[in-house]
Amino acid sequence: MEIYYKALEESKYTSFLSEHRALPMMYMEDAIRATIELTEAPADQVKVRSSYNLAGISFDPATIGASIQKVMPEFELDFAPDFREEIAASWPESIDDSAAQADWNWTPKYDLDTMTEAMLSNLKTKLQLS
Fold it and tell me: Where in the sequence is the domain holding 48, given as residue range(s)?
């Protein structure tokens, strides 16, 4: 989130993660839709009774920076990894949601570029920027 705020407010951001530290993320609209789709799926399709993994998108700081630059070419990104880099290194780079895909046809609607466009547009409105 912070990278989008800084992009709009300052046209630059310093990442606390290294350039290629990928992490799994999901746009909130996909998470809400997944919850609704799961509750509405026919009972015989819901084969996992404890919980499903859901994947959205995985990206690293350099890739999200490039996505922002497609909308805001003036955006600048640099890197100054700190203690959070080590924490992020212990997390998975992606999540396996093949059971959700197979059982009730889960698929995210937002890729990185559509999420970036939505985030920047929504934050512009929230921040009352033109």
Answer: 2-123
Q: Is residue 77 part of a domain?
A: yes
Question: For the chain, what is the domain count?
Answer: 1
Q: What is the pTM of this model?
A: 0.89
Count of CB atoms within 10 A of residue 27's CB?
20
Query: H/E element holding 90?
Result: none
Asked if 47 contacts 99 with a C-beta cutoff of 8 angstroms, the reply is yes
Residue 111 in contact with residue 33, Cβ under 8 Å? no
Query: What pLDDT, in 10s, does the model give residues 90-128?
Result: 999 999 999 999 999 999 999 999 999 999 999 999 988
